[in-house]
Amino acid sequence: MTLSMELAVLAVLLPLAASVTNITSTISLSPAQTPSPGKQMHDAIYNSFSIEFSFMVEYAGNDSHPNTFSQQVIQNLVDISGEPPMFRVGGSTQSLAVYYPDQAEAIIDPFESIASTQPNYSFIGPAFLQSFHQFPVDTKYIFGLNFYNPDETLFDIGDGLAQCVLEAHAAYTSLGDALYAFEIGNEVDVWPGTDMRSANWTLDDYVKQWNHYAANISLNLTGKDDLQLFQGCVFESPRNDVANAEADGMTTKRAKTVSDHDYMGTNCGYTGVGPTIESTIFNRTLVLSILWYHEYLGNLTRASGIPYVLGETNSIACEGAEGISDVMASAIWAVDYVMYLSSLQVDRVHFHMCTRCRYSAWVATPFNGTDPQVYPLYYASLFNAQVFAGGEKQTEVLVNTTSMGAYAVYAGGELESLVAVSVSIWNSTEDATARPYTALQLPEGWEQARVFRLTNPGVDVATDITFAGQSVNQAGEMVGEKKYEDVLENGVVLVGAGEAVLIQL
Ligand SMILES: *[C@@H]1O[C@H](CO)[C@@H](O)[C@H](O)[C@H]1NC(C)=O
Ligand SMILES: *[C@@H]1O[C@H](CO)[C@@H](O)[C@H](O)[C@H]1NC(C)=O
Ligand SMILES: *[C@@H]1O[C@H](CO)[C@@H](O)[C@H](O)[C@H]1NC(C)=O
Ligand SMILES: *[C@@H]1O[C@H](CO)[C@@H](O)[C@H](O)[C@H]1NC(C)=O
Ligand SMILES: *[C@@H]1O[C@H](CO)[C@@H](O)[C@H](O)[C@H]1NC(C)=O
Ligand SMILES: *[C@@H]1O[C@H](CO)[C@@H](O)[C@H](O)[C@H]1NC(C)=O
Ligand SMILES: *[C@@H]1O[C@H](CO)[C@@H](O)[C@H](O)[C@H]1NC(C)=O
Ligand SMILES: *[C@@H]1O[C@H](CO)[C@@H](O)[C@H](O)[C@H]1NC(C)=O
Ligand SMILES: *[C@@H]1O[C@H](CO)[C@@H](O)[C@H](O)[C@H]1NC(C)=O
Ligand SMILES: *[C@@H]1O[C@H](CO)[C@@H](O)[C@H](O)[C@H]1NC(C)=O
Ligand SMILES: *[C@@H]1O[C@H](CO)[C@@H](O)[C@H](O)[C@H]1NC(C)=O
């Protein structure tokens, strides 16, 4: 059938939709009845978060003043999916933190100015750990430990190993079962030649030191040196270093998981034109080329018995870019990104956030005149919570073009839903009636499916976003009635440029 014939057919079948809808293409979705062998199972923890270490108290509060905004937005996700996301609490500031058992304040973290995104350092005391008890029940944490030199001059630390054990002992004692894993140091692959390590410090040196610190913590906590409670590597970007670290002696004896970090572009250190939506998160060629490394390394580490985690990620590095990270485009990108990652041997994805970051899913305390609020990225987690609700999900890539990703989702080995994401720019400034739509032709038997839509007037703005008809108010609560759309006649679902749909049997 030619496109015009298809349009004519659709116009007959969908008189109402066709009269107001510009259908520019048709794609048939043909999922297999079962996933291919070896696909990883995921649950709703798949779309998890990472909070920059020094901002944990702002996000979570403490025993007497829990942060009710964070509690609410996490509870929304629990209400949809049945389980809370996991929180990795770490980042650059974990490596410049020092634990003082006698410090009364939860955290002392001076910022150079209002424009600084991170403090000079973070001195933490026992009260800091109260913040790990405020999120909904069953929330698990990855705690980012410091990793100073054995003989450390910075902050007059002295014995860096003893400081690491001290911090680990306090966290382990406080968090109990809520502690999923420790990291030891953040992005150490970029440390050689900095304040943290000498220029000749190699990957092999790192692995030896990591094993030494992990063994010491393990002995301290359990009397044995083989506590498998560590997320290793935590590298800045995924090239081959995770595989090399394993070859150098990071093994299942202590490594529970290994983690890499990644971003689709950077808001610092570039020359010439800065990043745009089109050149970064909506450049599917670029995004897929980045995803290749995670596919490759996920395959390798899975074979070694250590699951691979995307332990810190987001749209644009250096705290995000205005007009990219804080608008609808980031939510659409994040749905496609998480769905694609879930089809690989990648165990979990942690979206990074901080009070002073532009890419945060939410900000939980007032800052610079802005109230606590959710940002567009949060809507991607609502969408993904719905996809992975109930757990035991496997995914397959169905459509993989420069402008669209579509996926099949299997629950307990059986086909359950389809996801389609249009990574095409549609701006709020354009005439809404001209928005192009792709007609998704569903397989037979899907006529009664329910359609959940993520939409707003344009990917360039953060306004009027709804998922299944609902939005999030100033208090972080879901508002509006949850609405499913029906499949159109002849088994068709429309997805507009810059929209995502979840079609559930
Ligand atoms: C708990 O948080 C409140 C509000 O930020 C603060 O005033 C109080 O000092 C904190 N308590 C502890 C033990 O840190
Ligand atoms: C603080 O708010 C002012 C006024 O809206 C704005 O110009 C400035 O860029 C903001 N600063 C930071 C660091 O966000
Ligand atoms: C923080 O660091 C800046 C330079 O990086 C320095 O000028 C400032 O004095 C430092 N502030 C504190 C409280 O250490
Ligand atoms: C573990 O480390 C903590 C903090 O340094 C210390 O108080 C404790 O005595 C140590 N426990 C063992 C068994 O070594
Ligand atoms: C590495 O560099 C440090 C400090 O520059 C130096 O003390 C040490 O001897 C060097 N180690 C090796 C193996 O070259
Ligand atoms: C633990 O660290 C202490 C202090 O550096 C050291 O004396 C001890 O040998 C270490 N133990 C292990 C098992 O690495
Ligand atoms: C998209 O990314 C590819 C690969 O990095 C690059 O060659 C291309 O120029 C990018 N397109 C845009 C519009 O920036
Ligand atoms: C990863 O493994 C899968 C399944 O064996 C294979 O199809 C794929 O090509 C591998 N990808 C890479 C990048 O090695
Ligand atoms: C998706 O497209 C990219 C880029 O062409 C390719 O590398 C990748 O293997 C494709 N993935 C699937 C599952 O077809
Ligand atoms: C959409 O808006 C963005 C941001 O304002 C702009 O950079 C881009 O050129 C616009 N694209 C189109 C297709 O209008
Ligand atoms: C439909 O969308 C296409 C592609 O964006 C555009 O060229 C065309 O002008 C639109 N047609 C109408 C009737 O809006």
Automatic annotation (TrEMBL):
<protein>
    <recommendedName>
        <fullName>Beta-glucuronidase C-terminal domain-containing protein</fullName>
    </recommendedName>
</protein>
<keyword id="KW-0732">Signal</keyword>
<dbReference type="Pfam" id="PF16862">
    <property type="entry name" value="Glyco_hydro_79C"/>
</dbReference>
<dbReference type="InterPro" id="IPR031728">
    <property type="entry name" value="GlcAase_C"/>
</dbReference>
<dbReference type="InterPro" id="IPR017853">
    <property type="entry name" value="GH"/>
</dbReference>
<dbReference type="InterPro" id="IPR052974">
    <property type="entry name" value="GH79_Enzymes"/>
</dbReference>
<dbReference type="InterPro" id="IPR013780">
    <property type="entry name" value="Glyco_hydro_b"/>
</dbReference>
<feature type="domain" description="Beta-glucuronidase C-terminal">
    <location>
        <begin position="406"/>
        <end position="502"/>
    </location>
</feature>
<feature type="signal peptide">
    <location>
        <begin position="1"/>
        <end position="19"/>
    </location>
</feature>
